[in-house]
């Protein structure tokens, strides 16, 4: 595990990320906060591109909790059967939709605890929704962020929670809103798991990752 980078190095790293992409956005398609919750919940163990293909037609006909309930579990399955674990995910989509209708008047709550109480919604999903929809500086740590954080020293930690805390505690506040998107995109397209693109990396001189020859 790399050592935690210092404040000045982190500021330079995120200044470069910001200069390269001032306003990074998530890659899951959605039309409102409800469809964002569903899309993120469906994305577990699936690619964003795969989820987008599956939900393109689903969100056209079911973009509210009530419409999803009207569609029913089997109806949801017909749209998302190309996604891994689709049967369990369909059950969760229907369950969370029912809770939203019965307990929240069809609205998506905007607290982490309330979001995490929904079936299929964990801390990462809740943080994505809080960040992308309500622009709260929540850090949704996925495999990409975990890898980048530990390789580089940006946010080292033995667990997802430790990496999340390292981001919150060490990255300058003015970069916190977009931090998790910069890190996800960097991990997805540059600091790849098997063949990181070190020679063209914009933070190569600041990164602690030793093997830069792959």
List its traits.
57% helix; mainly alpha; 214 residues
Task: Give the structure's gist in a few sentences.
57% of the residues lie in helices and 0% in strands.
Gap between N and C termini = 19 Å
Number of helices: 10
Helicity level: 55-70%
Q: How many strand elements?
A: 0
Q: What class, by secondary structure content? A: mainly alpha
Portion of residues in beta strands equals: under 5%
Principal-axes geometry comes out as: elongated
Largest sheet: none
Give the integer mean of the pLDDT values.
96
Radius of gyration: 18 Å
Please specify the SSE layout and strand pairing.
Elements: H1 7-20, H2 33-42, H3 48-61, H4 65-80, H5 86-104, H6 112-116, H7 123-132, H8 143-152, H9 160-170, H10 176-189
Task: Report on this structure.
There is one protein chain. This protein has 214 residues and is mainly alpha-helical. It is 57% helix and 0% strand. The chain has helices at residues 7-20, 33-42, 48-61, 65-80, 86-104, 112-116, 123-132, 143-152, 160-170, 176-189. α3 packs across α4 (65-80) and α4 packs antiparallel against α5 (86-104).
């Amino acid at each position: 595990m790399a050592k935690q980078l210092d404040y000045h190095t982190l500021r330079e790293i995120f200044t470069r990320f910001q200069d390269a992409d001032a306003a990074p956005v998530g890659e899951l398609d959605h039309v409102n906060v409800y469809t964002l919750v569903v899309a993120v919940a469906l994305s577990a163990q699936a690619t964003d591109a795969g989820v987008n293909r599956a939900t393109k037609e689903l969100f056209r006909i079911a973009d509210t909790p009530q419409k999803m309930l009207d569609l029913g579990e089997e109806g949801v399955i017909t749209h998302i059967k190309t996604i891994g674990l689709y049967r369990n995910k369909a059950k969760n989509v229907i369950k969370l939709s029912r809770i939203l209708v019965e307990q929240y008047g069809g609205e998506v709550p905007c607290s982490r605890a309330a979001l995490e109480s929904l079936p299929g919604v964990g801390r990462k999903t809740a943080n994505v929704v809080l960040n992308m929809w309500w622009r709260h500086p929540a850090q949704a740590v996925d495999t990409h962020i975990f890898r980048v954080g530990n390789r580089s020293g940006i946010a080292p930690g033995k667990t997802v929670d430790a990496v999340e805390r390292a981001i919150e505690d060490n990255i300058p506040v003015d970069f916190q809103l977009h931090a998790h998107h910069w890190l996800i995109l960097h991990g997805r397209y540059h600091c790849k798991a098997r063949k990181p693109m070190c020679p063209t990396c914009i933070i190569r001189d600041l990164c602690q990752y030793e093997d830069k020859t792959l």
